[in-house]
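User: Second chain of the day. Same drill as before.
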Amino acid sequence: MKKHNFSAGPCILPQSVFQKASQAVLNFNDLDLSILEISHRSKDFVEVMETARNLALEHLGLQNSNYTALFLQGGASMQFLMTAYNLLENKAAYLNTGTWSSKAIKEAKLIGEVIEVASSAKDNFNYIPKNYTIPNHVDYFHCTSNNTIFGTQMHQFPDTSAPMVCDMSSDIFSRELDFKKFSLIYAGAQKNMGPAGTTLVVIKNDILGRVSRAIPSMLNYKTHIEKESMFNTPPVFSVYVSMLTMQWLKDKGGIKAIAKQNEKKANLLYSEIDRNPLFKGLVANKEDRSQMNATFTLESKDLESAFEDYLKEAGINGLKGHRSIGGYRASMYNALPLDSVEVLVETMQTLEKNA
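Assistant: Same format as last time:
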């Protein structure tokens, strides 16, 4: 039977996307060639790249504006460095809410001065800091919108005069936001958008060109903007599947429609975590809970073996929590259907009934 896939990433993608992608591997656009072997300079793939970039801007409400969408390589981890290389002249402000923001801070410190405006590290990142002050005259403010490992999510973003940079790797396209508040957004594809191998970067064009350092060509956003994401050979298949997934999302009604489904899924699971005496959530403040990644654990380790058996019997995959916090993590990305969450809730109730 088909698994109920709660994996944190690489993660579930729509079945219709898999079907189209698998056909393209055999015969793309009736060319009698695979998408894996056609030239990235060919008309057929250039059209894929243009469509993908345009769809990204359309979903974010940034089309026909001063923003450019790029599909690059190196994951969000490369963006930790590229952001600083391109934007950090004097000092930058960072909010530290988890493992990935900590890594972003580490990379930025190689380039210039970093001010950590707030951190939840001392409590193992189980909440989102509030009421912090972003200093005046910083080159930019960096935050991570959703923390896959710890199950926290920013539900409010600060008002600041500094350009706001956000790592949206694990909640891109999942909820409605005023994306014009952000000057740079980046997101690895392997959560809500496509397979691992490409990274979406959305840049407000006028924030570039403000640093005095020489930037290596491959790390320079201007290089990739000028070459329309084709400076070097792009990850053709990853971009193509990302395009298909964004088309699927558009057919579903876009971010507005999928956000309603994501809210239903999260509410259903969190209600069971709060109701069921055998489980407890791992996020300190309920208002900081992630709609994408619900982290929880059993009240008693003695029940772990039985719960694992029930999960296996139900066809539930990828629920194990990250090694840094343990427990369980249910990743409920856009493509995860509501009935998968219903099966998980039923499994938690079965454990309660038979415990």
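The radius of gyration is 21 Å.

User: Great, on to the next one.
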